[in-house]
Design goal:
Its main location: membrane. This is Ig-like domain-containing protein. It is built from five helices and 62 strands. By secondary structure, the chain is mainly β. The strands form twelve sheets. Strands 52, 54, 55, 56, 59, 60, 61 and 62 form an eight-stranded mixed sheet that branches.
Length: 891
Amino acid sequence: MGHRGEKAPPPPPPPLLLLALFASCLGRVVKVPKGPLVRVEGTEVVIPCNVSQYDGPSEQNFDWEFSTNPVEDSKYVHIVSSWDPWFTSREYEDRVNNKEITLRRNSNDAVELVIMNIHSADEGMYRCTTPSTDAVFQGNYNAEVEVKVIADGLRVSGSKARSTSTWNLSEGEAFHLRCSASTNSSEHTHLHVSWEFKNGLAWQEILSLTHEGKFQPGLEYNERFISGDVRLDAMANDIYRLSVSQALPTDEGAYRCRVSEWVKGADGTWQKIQEKTADVVNVVVQPTALGVFITGSNVTVTERDSLDLTCNITTDRSGIFQAEITWYFSESPDGTVADAQVLLSADRDSVISDSTLISLSHVDRTSYHLLVRDVDIGDSGYYFCQAALWVPQHNGSWYKVAERTSVPVTVEVLALEPIYHVFLNASKTPKFSEDPTELECRITEAKNTEANIRFTVSWYYRLPLRSDEVAKDELLAAMDADWTLVVGERSKQRAQNGEIIFSKPAVDTFRLRIQWASEADKGDYYCVISSWSRQRNNSWIKIKDVASMPVSILWSTQDYALTVEAVKLKPFFMAGHTFEMTCKVSSQNIKTPRYSVLITAEKPLNDQSSLNGTTRIISLNQDSVVRREDWTDQDRVDGVVLEKVQENEFRYRMYQTQVSDAGLYRCMVTAWSPGGGGMWREAVNGLSNPIQIDFQTSGPVFNVSVHSDSPTVYREEMVNLICIITVEGTVLDPDDMSFDVSWFATRSVAVDRYPVFLASLDRKGIVIQARRNGSSDVSLERIAPLEFRLRIHGSEDQDFGNHYCVVTPWVQSAAGIWQREMELKSKPILVTVKMDVLNAFKFPLLIGIGLATIIGLLSCLIGYCTSRWCCKKEVQETRRERRRLMSMEMD
């Protein structure tokens, strides 16, 4: 075992580290504060020590020693160590064990020696030593500092002019606090005196006289210190007086004096060596009492009279003060000062704000009179006054000591109501729908209607209901006070179109006119006349509403009737001839009707047993405008005609009829009656009897089917599908037959899914293909007179599904006219696409084997290079420490 502090010598540093060490001038540096350190007996002493420019571990250890006579090195006594628990000498063991002396580490290279209660015997020299961890012994390994212990000579006491510990002061009263502070220290020390205040949990600084002789106010007392309201005076007999010229409610709390003693260190900086406090007094500030009330409670005045209110104040304040009065008005009893309207105010110099109809007079020191002349309805509400007391300060400024607001008083202004009646009559009533209707609302027997009274009207509609139901009123239109018309939802659109007109033909008359009455206008109507009074600010306030008796608008009506008859002009015709039929219309209870006609057809399905959906062919509206609807036969663009023969008779013609035109034909007629604004209103609809077109023919019968030799293929292979047409019955020349062929696919095994169009070939040889998302492609060609082949090139998974063809035959008659037969649909055939597993994995497998081979060869090359050049063992010579051995624990 080695001696304490010894350790095995470290390995020699590399050349670059040696150059860095040689470049350093001092090597290891241990520092303590520059002494002597002057401390007061019984206080805490903290001596810091740090080390820099060292080698070895980042965390350094420290030893502290003490000597009363530092001349002889043997006189040092061990105090405490940061790494050796047996380092402490016997005379310090109790103080170290009791934590009276501790070693506090701040960082890896800095510690503090803390002596809690220093004695006079602790005066002497303190040495801080750091064990060596350096490769080269260079620099200093210890540092010393002298500590001087002086006796406690600081005396602090609080003195007050009154014997009680609590002072009761009135708001605005001045008060003075005293603190006695002195010292008889043997050293040259300075005192720092601070006055502090607490009204809660924490103490806050009021004003201080620092050890450098400067005044330093607290943050919240800076303005009061600048204005001279708070002052600190150094008086005779070591007295420090705090003076406050105006006591505020916020000054209520506890006051104390805090004194600290400072000494200038060897480095020229000031150090605080001790601090003491003395409680002085508790201050209670009584706020200024102020009462504000208005004479009277609820006040009622008549419109155009004057309102008289008085604001009274009471206070216990004596001496010089000035009152500031402000009158407020609010429409709500709970209104605050911020939300209320300021009427008038008188400041502390009795300067009154200007107003024409409102005046404010100062009756005496505590009474303020408010007079409002020529009141109106808008003056009804709540009035209250606010008073503030101001007192002068010693620097000539004024300070507000109190502010109160009175309880609001209710003021009701009674209006001079006009007296009038309202009469409503119907000047025009409808006898039929679309007739005009006119209502007049008049004011009668009006009294007290002065020049400042204005009348407006509101129109209402009430739907007539049974006696046990509650009638619901709907607003048609209403006028604002400025005669702006606001139209209700029921009549907004019709008023914009000019169908409903609201007017005012005279001062006392209002009119409602409906240009074209409809069934929805039947019901009860009434009007409400509102009277408005002009206020002083030129605004209008509603005084009264008077409603008229309701007037019923009703007329007898009969249900519309419409009859439509279709007649086939030719009883029998053949394909290629012209089909013609007429539609005759008769109506009842419709005023000057016009008709629109639509020709529809119901085509039979392929199995001839049921009818397909209704097809809209051609229409003619009430203004005789013809429009082709769903007629899409490009070869017969002008093949259908619809014309108006008479006012109630229409004729339909279809030229060059074909077998595919077979079906039931009807006339769908709509009767229109004239509506408002030149518009037409739909009255009633009617449907005629059906007229059948049926071709009795013994022509050929076509059938269609789909065939494929190999409907199951692998990906990238080609699919061949053949659409085969067979003819039964009459034998035709191939030149007399032509076909439209379309191919469709359903991307599912189920055939009821929505089909996807693939390609088509019409009878003129034009091929149309659908846009495709994948890489596969399709081609369509005619390989025989009755066979059409569809090819799918480079098939993919998305080509899976049921495929079928749709064929429309065309047959040329003996007259040379081409007739279109019924559309035919084949049964579907399922096409499946498989994946070639061997081809799918062939190329990925070859690539994987190649990559594995390359990675293996690269790994062998890296291993060889590493073992050849990078794994040599370097042996370095162990270097011993020059000065002394180190402990094994430090290795």
